[in-house]
Amino acid sequence: xxxxxxxxxxxxxxEYYADGDIVRNAGTGIVLEQSNTNVKVFCTKKRHAQWFSIxxxxxxxxxxxxxxxxxxxxx
Length: 75
Prior knowledge:
Layout: E1 10-16, E2 23-34, E3 38-43, E4 48-53, E5 57-61
């Protein structure tokens, strides 16, 4: 099953111990960016953004993100 994660979605993120079976930490956040298999999430618990694998997040609620084309991106 392919996850349809988009910018602005509310997600639950998970951090695992090295063996990959036991959850070390978890929380909620908002998707800021995405690449092929990774998603950058602003973690409300940690109060900073962090990259997660798509396998480490779960969709909680779809967002209503609408980009403002008048805002210039900094390079």
